[in-house]
Amino acid sequence: MNADERAIVEAIDQQGLLAALSELVAIPSLGGTPEEQAAQEAVAVLMRRCGLEVEQWNLDLPTLYAHPACSWELPRERGLGVVGSLGSPGAGRDLIFNGHVDVVPAGDLANWTYPPWQTTLTNGRIYGRGTTDMKGGLCCAIFAAKALRDAGVALQGRLVIQSVIGEEDGGLGTLGAILHGPQADGAIVIEPTELKIAPLQAGAHNFRLTVYGQAAHGCVREEGVSAIEKFFPLHQAILHLERERNQRFRHPLYARYTTPYPICIGTVHAGTWASSEAESLVAEGRYGIAIGEDPLVARRELEATIAAVVAADPWLREHPPRLEWWGGTFDPAATPQDHPLVQTIAASYTDATGNPTRFEGMTYGADMRLLANTAGIPTVLFGPGDVRTAHRPDEYVTLDDLLSCTRTLALTALRFIGNA
């Protein structure tokens, strides 16, 4: 690292970063709630404290809902967009850091060792809902920008930090930020990647399968038809399809995964009474889509699988299940590994940490698909924490990951945008 780069790394405000993360975790910013907006307002205040130029606006929800790239699951009466920036358009490239404030529910609090809505630092780990997914990464982005400012570095272009809502249920906030602008020459979504550089993001489309039976009193159940029993062969066929698809679609950056494109049945609801045959069943899930795969072609494979089971069952032929595509729609996205942004992050990570760079594709859906596919911006996933700790009790990120990520982002911004 040269003198300017060392000054930036040394300027990182560790205590400020931890305080900011604590402040954001304390806001239970579940998607579609007023707290989601409160978190955005808190981020705007934080950005201003860190010396960024901040813009806030109310999302134009009707326009977003009508956009072909929009997907959502949770109702919202309003949404707030927040963008902080450092520098201005010039001779250098512009770079986006993107992070979301919405989190998933904490679930049964009895399963948590540490309170979910406050940070707890112990043994180098920081516990709390959103520490990994992804308020920790968002704070890294903000404090990387602060380090650039505090070190007195003038950028040739502009660093833009998008703080967005609605990522967990489809990406509404990032689509709003894209349509609002500004655009850029590259983007990094600070999702948890274990500090691996991820130029690939798998796709995931939500689906709902409704199976119909015939109600009957439980004492004469053979005179009815159980929708639960009719679901069993459909589920087995879906699992077979999952195995076949994951054997067919292989990529070297997913080498450690046997199932990089899962088909997950997440919820099943059936019946109305314990002593009645279930007259209907509704199963909801997510359908993994491979890198480079046409999502519409992928959908047709599930539709054909369901149709084959239906054709082999007399009851299902007469009472065909209903398959719907709904909610979150995350298409796969990719950026070439030799792209300047990818290579800049790789070199910056090694210089910032002394560790070798690791490349890997991510199996989860994320807002990379909107930045890369809809906006046409070369995009990479890179951030602190492991997604395996997210969406579960005792979510945590390590302090080392937060600091390593912040240093890497700061160096990447300087090197990709350029020093004036």
From TrEMBL:
Entry keyword set: Cobalt, Hydrolase, Metal-binding, Zinc
Coiled coil ranges: none
Ranges where the Peptidase M20 dimerisation domain occurs: 203-308
Cofactor(s) needed by this chain: Zn(2+); Co(2+)
Pfam families named in the record: M20_dimer (PF07687), Peptidase_M20 (PF01546)
Sequence similarity: Belongs to the peptidase M20A family.
Record protein name field: Acetylornithine deacetylase
Originating organism: Candidatus Chloroploca asiatica
